[in-house]
Amino acid sequence: MEIKITSNTRNELLSRNELAFTASNDGATPARSDIGAKIAAMQNTPVENLILSPLKGRFGTRAVTGVARIYDTPEALKATEREFLIARGQPKAEKEE
Fold first, then answer.
1. How far is it, in rounded angstroms, from Cα 91 to Cα 26?
2. What does pTM read for this prediction?
3. Neighbour order of strands in the sheet with 16-24
4. What pLDDT is stored for residue 54 in this prediction?
């Protein structure tokens, strides 16, 4: 998977960087967690400070466009983002049987 950052804007009021990106892949559409982990590694930031929203794929192409918001601290993330977006980025808990 190759990720190309198309814009990087700093938002001082909300203590975050806003990245627009395009992720190209050879096989199936990559998972949100894989995209988030790769962007976090590219920006040298913890995955916990990253929110991906929205991710859009187009029919017939092997590219996904999206926006990543990277916060300076987890507290700034929790103060700004909605709960369902925070939960969407967390790993799923395993089911007990």
1. 24
2. 0.83
3. 2-11, 16-24, 63-71, 50-57
4. 86
